[in-house]
Amino acid sequence: MSNYKLKSDGGLKRGAEPIDIITRFERIPTHIAETSEEGARHVARQIAEIIRDRSMQGLHCNLALSSGKSPVGVYRELVRMHNEESLSFKNVEIFTVFEFYPVGESEHQSHTHTLKEEFLMQVDIPLENIHILNGKVASNDVTTYCRNYETMIRKKGGIDALLLGFGDEGQIALNESGTYPNTRTRVVALSNKSRKYASSMFYGVENTPTKALTMGIGTILSARKVFVVGWGENKSIAFAKVIEGNIDSAVPGSYLQEHNNIEITIDEDAASLLTRVNTPWLVGTCIWTNRFIRKAVLWLCQQVGKPILKLTYQDYIDHYLGQMIDDTGSTYDKINIQVFNDLQHTISGWPGGKPNGDDTTRPARSSPYPKRVVIFSPHPDDDVISMGGTFLRLADQGHDVHVAYQTSGNIAVHDDVVIQIVDSARECGFEDRYGEICELVASKKKGQAEPFALRQLKGSIRRAEAKAACRHFGINDRTNVHFLNLPFYETGSVKKGAVGQADIDIVVDLLRRVQPHQIYAAGDLSDPHGTHRVCIEAVLAALKQIIEDGDEWLNDCVMWLYRGAWQEWDLDMVDMAVPLSPDEVIKKRHAIYRHLSQKDIVPFPGDDKREFWQRAEDRTQATAQLYDKLGMAEYQAIEVFVKYDVYHQ
């Protein structure tokens, strides 16, 4: 069960309007779950009901299933229902939705392999009832093969229920942008973006297939019931387009608007850009808390292109915010001043608190001073990339700063970097292991986990880089730098495990040794199964254990959340904003430079071609520009944080 969820503040008033009013912009029925776990249970129960209904009629139930990160929770819940609630799958026939081509079902990167591992081999489905898309069919037979697959589906009575996830750009199955709605099962060419996304599974884009077999849009639309699931903020743009946008071939998922029996189930993070979540004042009556008022006013500033204190009564009325003025009993100018002061008070150049200063309106309290601080960094560079300026401020202002690197980050070191570093050691006259390491690299087998010795070496490279960055900020790398090497990460492959007690115990031990007054952790809301998300779960599970054990030091501790290299907190959520000077921006950049293995060539860079230091500077400078446009002081860059209440969240 997920521990990590940011507390919502304000929003739609439940029951004030009928559901068809507040969802009037939505063109597909959508269930918003509080968590991905709740959403998975919601879908699994409906699939189980379909299976049981068909069984009571003496009929088979034909399910079309896809693999991927989003449906995993549904499969786990179905397995639980099989084990604990006697849900039988003996009357079920399975049709897989897509497969890489040419990839065999026994290969670890195969979607069929994943589906079998996560679900099919854990329940009582007869093997003869499992019909897979064979990624190894001969190229000269593939067209006939796909046609026969469609024929088999029709002969079996068609698909009763189909379960899908979405790609980040609204792809369904492996149907790329530009797909026509009448397409059937076929071979498709994968886009560069799709191949890059899948490249981590294949240990490099050069090993990633260029084609796939997939059910077409027409096949999907012919299913009697379609379930779509998705979790995490990184899916929010795609879901907003699919659910509220026009039907567009550039967003294949939008064709699902034409289906008469479909439900999309997403968590609150994936739903964050839907109108009823993002701008609920446009569809219904709202509860106006101070933080929610800030959200609405900042949205209004963006709509009219004005700073806060220049907003007029007419601006509020023209943009459906007259309700806020009426419900709060305030005037527009008082609201302007309230939000301006509220946002202004988030800015502080003293992230650890200003000693002996008036902290009435400052985000961080002045005492005690100096503070003990723990910065949790999921990978060995997230600390300097995401909050390097604040890290520097805390150190320069005399606080006892500790950094805890939660994972080794070893899979993100390119083989060429390893060989270069070993060669450098040889050239410097140290132990000559160049030939041995070259042989170790050459022993790697395509599609398999790297040799343990090579992973150890790559982890050592990243540790040395992290220590160098900490020394650059004046941190003692012998006493204040901690490499936790959480076990969940050390699988040897891109696919990682879940948080276990061993991970939690390691974090608990560190926290009890340091007993910090401040904790900083990466609070990403994107992939619910990604490394950053698992790392925050480990920290929160450790804090929960410490709370249950009654450790008194935690009463004097405040937790701050930062974001990763790709995204930043929306300003309506921000509790502390730390401004950086031009010199601090440069010093932060130099700390990022210490991570040489991540510079220029990164194994899994995604579509963003910028180096990490460029992403970091662009992000913090954009935040500073937002504050400036809202009427605040102008700064070179700003890093922002959200306060997390570990006791009441």
UniProtKB/TrEMBL annotation:
Species name: Mucinivorans hirudinis
EC number: 3.5.99.6
Every Glucosamine/galactosamine-6-phosphate isomerase domain range: 35-259
GO annotation (BP), single: N-acetylglucosamine metabolic process
Cross-referenced NCBIfam families: PRK02122.1
Matches recorded under SUPFAM superfamilies: LmbE-like (SSF102588), NagB/RpiA/CoA transferase-like (SSF100950)
Lineage of source species: Bacteria, Pseudomonadati, Bacteroidota, Bacteroidia, Bacteroidales
Keyword tags: Hydrolase
Class in the EC hierarchy, top level: hydrolase
GO molecular function: glucosamine-6-phosphate deaminase activity
InterPro entries xref list: Glc/Gal-6P_isomerase, GlcN6P_deaminase-like, GlcNAc_PI_deacetylase-related, Glucosamine6P_isomerase, LmbE-like_dom_sf, NagB/RpiA_transferase-like
A Pfam family the protein falls into: Glucosamine_iso
PANTHER family according to UniProt: GLUCOSAMINE-6-PHOSPHATE DEAMINASE-LIKE PROTEIN BT_0258-RELATED, GLUCOSAMINE-6-PHOSPHATE ISOMERASE
Name of the protein described by the UniProt record: Glucosamine-6-phosphate deaminase
